[in-house]
Fold:
Amino acid sequence: MRKKLILNAIIMVGLTGNILADSNSTVDNNRTVKGTTIGKYQKPGAPIDITYRSTRVKLNEPSDINISFSTPLKSGEMDVDINIDKDLKVIGEAYNKITYSLSPNQKEYNLNLRVSSSKNGLYYIRLLTKINGVNGIKTRAFAVPVYIGNGKLQKKSHQLVMKALGGENLSISKAEESVEVIK
Amino acid sequence: MKNRIYTLLIFLILITLYGCGEITTVDDGTVVIYPTPTPTPTYTFEPTSTPIPTSTSIPIDSNNGVKIIGKITYDRVHVKSSGTGLNYNNITRDSARGVTVKLVKNSCTSNDILKTTSTNDSGDYQFLNLTPTQNVRICVYAKLEKRGIGGYDVEVVDNTNNSAIYTMQSSLFNIGEDSTRRNLNASSGWGGYGYNRARTSAPFAILDSIYTAIKKVKTADSSAIFPKLKVNWSVRNVPSGGGSESELRDGFILTSHYNGDGNLYILGDENSDTDEFDNHIIIHEWGHYFEDKFSRSDSIGGSHGEGDKLDIRVAFGEGWGNAWSAIATDNPIYFDTQGFMQSDGFSMNIESGNSAVKGYFSEDSIQNILYDLYDSHNDGADRLSLGFKPIYNTLVGFQKNTKAFTSIFTFITGLQEENISEKDKINDILSSENIRPIVDIYGSSQANLYTSSTSDICTTGENGTFNKLNNHKYIKFTIDSSRNYIISVVQNNGSMSDPDFGVYKTSPFKHLGDSDNTTYKIESARYSLDSGDYLLDISDYNGQTYACFDININ
Structure:
């Protein structure tokens, strides 16, 4: 009976250990994350497409981010504002803005970064591209995902998600109220 | 027995070590919670610079017993006067029109619903003839619901949280002997340097933009019934991803868009691109829902921007979306706010903006033409003020049933048939965008896109690839006898193309299928075809500068 008790304890520690480890797990294999907007529907905006690659890495390991912009425009300038999540550390030179001179001989405009983080999470490199067209400036926003460690989004929701007895899921937040007795 | 107790003790200790913590949503589902209600005293709202209005347009009638009346509003953050970026110093409390409001016992999750109603066009609601009840709450759902003729069913959900419907709740209170006025406002969540509270108003702002669009359609057809629409918005919706089902559930929606299946997806990622207050974007994308459910769009989608010479189907679809956003709001300034603290972005004037490129292939030209047909402001070549009804009638009638691909050619042919006395004025507007008088649905005499020939049909990548002008050519053919046919498309000027094709029956118009294998030079497939007229849409996936094909149908 004592052996059974010890065995139960070991099993439970093992199970719990797995659960706890999952929330702090590290990524064993590096995986490449790729994406492109080429050929995909886009809402109105600057005529710019993006293709990106980022590597999923462990904590404190550098992730290589390769970004390529393409546009049918052959002259003028393309500005890119760069906004990197605060828990991502840029390795090497950091920019918050880049300007490309557009040329008929160039099809792609590249941006390469190296980042790392000491915290698990799904982070973003947010890019706002701008081009000056016939009717003034047009813009288009992109977000390049960077997976560190467990790669889970850490953003806290301010809503409370609950299941109604009728089966619907509800995302609930508090109203600002005023109350007055009607005479 | 002792050992069982020890086992249970160990189990409880371990679970406590893991399970302690605040209540949060889990990644793979919702947390089911039935909170114990705690009655609270009457709630006093946070003071703001714009107090919640205390008057209501619903008259107080002493014959209605104990009542609760009030107004539901939401914070709308307006665009700066420059048209670039949101102005958090200009937030108005706008009426939440037509939203579902319930009076419930205890919690919004409760099945014990005392009363249900919808707000009117002033955002007012009322619950009448109430009996004293303890522990009740007012729940406001981001939902527009109306049954029957002129009905609609729209809800705003969190696609990253199991499609949870956004809901705003009052505090818990008791119904006594006195009637009360309870106004509820959905706050923006803006804290001065970022969103630091729940962005409660976002779903209601989106819903109100859609309500505007619905109301505009009803000016043309009061009995129109709107099929169910689900609007997916989340703070996690980012301009990234490829559009797969799992990506959409994680918020990788790529861009605000209509998915062709009764779902809108709207961006919500702060410091990147949030669209909840960009009402022209909401209404533009709703315009694609309208095309899908009321009219017809043969657009092949894809990216599109200023200066593009587009496939005629894409040009019309996107030009319609932009024009519709201006028509529905009677505001020709389209804006898209983006960037850090939503302080950037761009705007364009649908009425007076210059077309970067003019023609039947230009999104700019289409939006200018459609808005000029509608608006009451005559300028330049525009001497027409048709209003929305003729445009609506053409879209739901002629455009929906046309035997050619939907384009400015099909739309204008239909519009002129129904408004023959305005033909010259319509042609003047077309001419200002370098479009000659339209003689038929195929754009004959000005666009070399349709042919009945099956030899030497050439596509070109000179305007770009995928969805640009002349990437696709359209072959008209007739089948006399119903049976299986093999359709082959073979390149005759080289072997580096990857031909693909789509087959369409034209009456009634139906997309039968696509053949798009990755093979050089040839594409071939068997189709069962009934007698009738057809269109074959051929293209080169490899985007060769110039690829010519022979077609065989036997």
Remarks:
- Residues 62-294 of chain B form one domain.
- Confidence is low (pLDDT under 50) at residues 11-57 of chain B.
